[in-house]
Amino acid sequence: MITIYGIHNCDTVKKTRKWFEANGVPYIYHDFRKDGFEPEIALRWCESVDTSLLINKRSTTWKQLSETQKRVIDDSNGSGLVELIIEYPTLIKRPVIESQSEIFIGYNENQLEKLK
Predict the structure, then answer these.
(1) Structural domains present in the chain
(2) What's the confidence (pLDDT) of residue 65?
(3) Per residue in 25-42, pLDDT tens?
(4) Residue range 64-97, pLDDT digits in tens
(5) Which residue out of 2, 7, 10, 115 is catalytically annotated?
(6) Could you give the CA distance from residue 37 to residue 35 in angstroms, rounded to a whole number?
(7) Known catalytic membership, residue 46
(8) How far apart are CA 32 and CA 7, in angstroms?
(9) Is-cis flag, bond preceding 95, omega within 30?
(10) Are the beta carbons of 95 and 5 closer than 8 angstroms?
């Protein structure tokens, strides 16, 4: 099963969900704010995806972080990154689409076609 992670009011998440529905691809939607965000999920993403793709450095949340918090993102061993993502899930570039074999970040129709 495919899971789309995001927040309800994100335009890119809405666009992605519409694509899935228009193409008849079944999915589960997980809203970070309503459904919570488990550390195991954040850890899996941090281990599987380049954090430069995962973290949205253009977000308001990123701009409000302290310099110390921002350095956690670039920390070579990744310590503290999971905790930072759990505390500020809107740092995550959305949507995150997770299938059994792949994780996609953001809206990209070429990637989504692979999930049909």
Answers:
(1) 3-113 (3.40.30.10)
(2) 93
(3) 999 999 998 998 889 999
(4) 999 988 888 766 455 588 889 999 999 999 999 9
(5) 10
(6) 7
(7) no
(8) 6
(9) yes
(10) yes
